[in-house]
Amino acid sequence: MDAMNNAYLGANAIAIALALASGVLYAQEPAYVTDVSFNHATSQVDVELSLTIPKAVVENNQVTLFLNGSFDVASVEGETLAGHSSEASAQIPPWNEHVLEFESGYDTHRVSFSYSGELNVDDGHGNEVSDERIHLTIDSAWHPIFANFATPMQGTVTIQLDDSWRVYAPGSTTRAENWVLLESASPQLDVAFFATRNDNAVEENGFTVIYDDANTQLATELSSVGATCLASLNEKFGQNRPLDSASLVLLQRQGPSFARANFLSINSNNVQRPPFGYQLVCHELAHNWTAIGNVMSHDYWIPESFAELVGAREIQSQFGDDAFQSLKQSWQERADGTEFVWRENVHQRASHRVNYGLGPLKLLQLENRVGAQTFDQFIADYMTSDITETIDLLDLLTSLTNSETAAWFEDQLATGELNE
Ligand SMILES: [Zn+2]
């Protein structure tokens, strides 16, 4: 117990020093300093965190955070906190919405949370806390996130795990005897990481695949695919924001695959039917260059459809035209019956059949119209921009071509038709 406490204090001192040293960097975004420990037998997490919230993200003196609804929240405290309430989310029922109300007149607010609870590891989302591995994603709501799905955070997490564990996460990790400190390298909407006592890993040119025993063969193939994509995408888009290395966690699990900067987690069931199925690795890597925006908005087709197309082009250059045609065919199957990609006056989020089907096909239509060279420039301009809204994407197209082409593309986005 004493050893634990010393480790806790040591880690927290470093975390706070990092947070202070990074004060300027974090000024725009909420910043967390989080400590988490586990009961591996019961899948329980125990969390203490401090969240610094700048007034820029506070509206009407309030912010709303999501947190796992089954957790026992022991305390929510802050000097500028005027009120706190929580209730089950109507939008996402397993989660609670915590509404924090602040006193006005402050530039920042600091709120401390203390909570614990068991994760539901059978809900099909791929989260796990066992004595062999820990996989925590957005779907577990183990850490507070902003309920608008549009406010990224930065910070540090101290993970109480001894040195028989290896930890992978977005950003960087520092290992001590009894804990690992994660420091995020870029703002993200959530806090995700993976820890394992298994030492399966294969690395090629900065691309590491960490895998379970079910994926030994696939891991070797994906390390090669990923290394080639990583080099190619850096060459095309990495001038301002290079991705020096990346880690892919490859597990036979349930739940979605996802990417957060240099950390990728892929459900190996999603990477079958090679070679075109390997596109998912390049798709996830491409997300390093697609700005986040609001993941619940009608503009969310942009990062997904561009990542699809960019990933498919990488597979085409590695495996040839047949693989690309197979991907195009899968887009056509998904797009069948969808009515449009984006309309200015419709604000619902596009379906996955649009994001991974009709969207990339509409981009190919644009390529047909403007030619490969201009289209490649359009892709590169988007991937090196911070564009998250369709209006701004159309402006980019206007500046690269002309207003007539942009108006034509806007009309194309508004229909499900695939003929010119
Ligand atoms: Zn994606």
Automatic annotation (TrEMBL):
Lineage top rank: taxon: Bacteria
InterPro entries: Peptidase_M4/M1_CTD_sf (IPR027268)
Name of this chain's protein: Peptidase M1 membrane alanine aminopeptidase domain-containing protein
Organism ancestry: Bacteria, Pseudomonadati, Pseudomonadota, Gammaproteobacteria, Alteromonadales
